[in-house]
Write a structure and sequence with these properties.
Helix content is 41%, strand content 18%. It is α/β, with parallel strands linked by helices.
């Protein structure tokens, strides 16, 4: 697909990616992100950054377009997350768990701990152990199998990872491997960040949600009863290995949940990608291999660009959370795990779009397109009846995007592919949105 003109705006940073600029990014043209001013007033355009010789972020391309890299024949795409000496590749392809060298090259030391869950372990644990040890007898592998579900993304379950690592006498030269969806990736990454103050880790995401979003960018952590993902760390992996064949065993509900994050990228910064989704949603839901590979590649490219500009969410990266403030309130209010993350985000995006429309920032045609594509993806377009206005407000008050008591939101503004991260919006409009979606 040709690169597309899109923009992302926030009080901290506004980026306008022209078609030529995005092609340059994907070919590895380097531009440096400006410092993110604390008052979030800075406005910088990518084209201006190029002229000033500044360095912007991630490059991603088909393997043939990359600087020469030895990869297995099954790797169809490599997307690079450009973070200086902490940069790492995202490998995307079918059958990558059979490419043993691909995984082994990113292992540090001779001890490996694979963190997985009761659902994924019977499917892929043996295959990953084989990939780690085949022709590599000096490596020993231990595993810890956690219960499956968002409700287990908490401190007690996390301690099981530490227990295993300490009992097995792992040292700082070990490697943790996250094998599973977003919950496993978040917990394994947080454990790796904290164990002995930081050890090597690798992401092997097995759900679409993890492949297009949570495994990329180094956000790790656990939930607290009062709010989602409030305890964690930014900690980057050595690599992300996406074997698209793992999606063959993914339940339909989990697949749709991942599609919600794919839709998000189109709405906030990639209009042409959104238009592709509108034409290819049925192919995605039918697990067409080429459609899935395309969606994963473009999602990872979009996230890698943003993460490379704003690793620790000073401003720009927050735009990746469209609908998440509302969605996290749904997850917390219902009880973790009742709705999948993508289901809650889908309803949250509809609420964010509704607020954007009430503010006069988008037209009704975009509202209708968002509703239509989420319905096609078989995702919720409203919160459950049990979530009240007060539940939304109390949970949103402790959201990570609150600064100095001010709730900042990601909202759409302008044509498709544009958004803002802002606290400058009419609170009455927010109240109207909440009241229109809640019965009490």
């Amino acid at each position: 697909m040709a690169a597309v003109s899109s923009s992302v705006a926030s009080p901290s940073l506004r980026l306008s990616h022209t078609a030529s600029n995005r092609r340059s990014l994907r070919r590895g043209v380097a531009l440096r992100s400006p410092s993110l001013a604390s008052d979030f007033r800075l406005s910088v355009h990518v084209g201006e950054s190029v002229r000033r010789g500044l360095r912007v972020s991630a490059n991603s391309a088909q393997v043939m377009e990359q600087p020469r890299r030895e990869v297995g024949p099954k790797v169809s795409t490599v997307v690079d997350v450009d973070l200086g000496n902490r940069s790492y590749p995202i490998y995307i392809g079918s059958g990558l768990l059979e490419e043993h060298d691909l995984l082994q090259r990113h292992v540090h030391g001779k001890r490996v701990l694979v963190v997985t869950n009761t659902t994924v372990a019977p499917l892929y644990l043996d295959k990953v152990v084989t990939a780690l040890t085949s022709g590599n007898s000096g490596v020993s592998v231990e595993s810890v199998i956690l219960p499956d579900g968002e409700k287990y993304k908490e401190m007690g379950t996390l301690m099981k990872v530490f227990d295993k690592a300490i009992e097995s006498r792992f040292d700082r030269r070990c490697t943790f491997v996250a094998l599973g969806g977003g919950v496993i990736g978040d917990m394994c990454g947080f454990a790796a960040a904290a164990f002995l103050r930081g050890v090597n880790f690798i992401q092997i995401p097995t759900t679409l949600m993890a492949q297009v979003d949570s495994s990329v960018g180094g956000k790790t952590g656990i939930n607290h009863p009062l709010g989602k993902n409030l305890i964690g760390a930014f900690y980057q992996p050595q690599c992300v290995l996406i074997d698209t064949d793992t999606l063959n065993t993914l339940p339909e509900r989990e697949l749709a949940s991942g599609v919600a994050e794919v839709i998000k990228y189109g709405l906030i910064r990639d209009a042409e990608f959104f238009e592709w989704q509108e034409k290819n949603m049925q192919a995605l839901l039918a697990r067409d291999p080429s459609a899935l590979a395309y969606a994963i590649k473009h999602s990872c490219e979009n996230k890698a660009e943003v993460v490379s500009l704003d690793e620790k969410e000073s401003g720009l990266r927050a735009t990746l959370n469209l609908g998440h403030t509302f969605g996290h309130a749904i997850e917390t209010g219902l009880g973790y795990g009742e709705w999948l993350h993508g289901e809650a985000v889908a309803a949250g995006m509809v609420m964010a779009v509704d607020l954007s429309y009430r503010l006069g920032w988008i037209d009704d045609s975009l509202v209708k397109r968002v509703l239509t594509i989420l319905q096609q993806a078989r995702l919720p377009t409203a919160p459950p009846d049990s979530i009240t206005v007060e539940m939304f407000k109390s949970t949103m008050a402790v959201d990570k995007k609150v600064a100095d008591g001010l709730l900042r939101l990601i909202l759409l503004k302008g044509p498709l592919g544009n958004c803002v991260f802002t606290g400058d919006y009419d609170r009455k409009a927010l109240d109207e949105t909440l009241q229109s979606f809640c019965k009490s």
